[in-house]
């Protein structure tokens, strides 16, 4: 993820070789590299899997990375209703950067107790 955030996509894709095909971290790398269609397919497959209900916060990060803000916020709300501990990192998680200017993001930060 760090290589992708720095724009070093050759290194990021090389690192993907070490991940299993099911590792959804690849979504963040593909999306950062502008390969959003590929990334969305992985997210949709993950959403259909059994493990997705355990981590709505992660699903919201994946959707945010692919630019699907509506679904990202829907999953953030699920995370909030579950009182998921992961929400404490929403203020600093780079996967959510694209959501920060949205009023819904500020509202959720306030409700979680992370507003400034």
Task: Describe the protein's architecture and organization.
It is a single chain. The mean pLDDT is 89. Helices cover 57% and strands 0% of the residues. It is built from 7 helices and no strands. It is globular. Helix 3 (25-32) runs antiparallel to helix 4, helix 4 packs antiparallel against helix 5 and helix 6 (69-81) packs parallel to helix 7 (103-112). The longest helix is centred in the middle third of the chain and has 13 residues, at 69-81. The protein has 116 residues and is mostly helical. The two termini are 27 Å apart.
Terminal CA distance = 27 Å
Q: What letter string, H or E per element, gives the SSE order?
A: HHHHHHH
Shape: globular
How would a crystallographer describe the biggest sheet? none
Oligomer: single chain
Computed Rg:
14 Å
Q: Helix proportion of residues, in percent?
A: 55-70%
The tally of beta strands, per DSSP, is: 0
State mean pLDDT (0 to 100 scale): 89
- Structural class by sheet pairing and helices: mainly alpha
Strand content: under 5%
Uncertain stretches: none
- Number of helical stretches of at least 4 residues: 7
Features:
single chain, 116 residues, mainly alpha, 7 helices, 57% helix
List the helices and strands and how they pair.
Blueprint: H1 2-5, H2 9-16, H3 25-32, H4 36-47, H5 56-66, H6 69-81, H7 103-112
């Amino acid at each position: 993820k760090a290589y992708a955030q720095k724009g070093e996509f050759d290194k990021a894709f090389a690192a993907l070789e070490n991940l299993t095909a099911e590792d959804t971290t690849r979504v963040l790398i593909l999306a950062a590299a502008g390969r959003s269609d590929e990334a969305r397919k992985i997210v949709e497959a993950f959403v259909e899997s059994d493990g997705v209900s355990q981590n709505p916060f992660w699903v919201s990060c994946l959707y945010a990375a692919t630019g699907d803000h509506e679904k990202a916020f829907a999953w953030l709300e699920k995370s909030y209703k579950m009182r998921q501990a992961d929400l404490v990192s929403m203020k600093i998680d780079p996967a959510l950067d694209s959501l920060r200017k949205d009023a819904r993001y500020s509202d959720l930060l306030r409700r979680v107790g992370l507003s400034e």
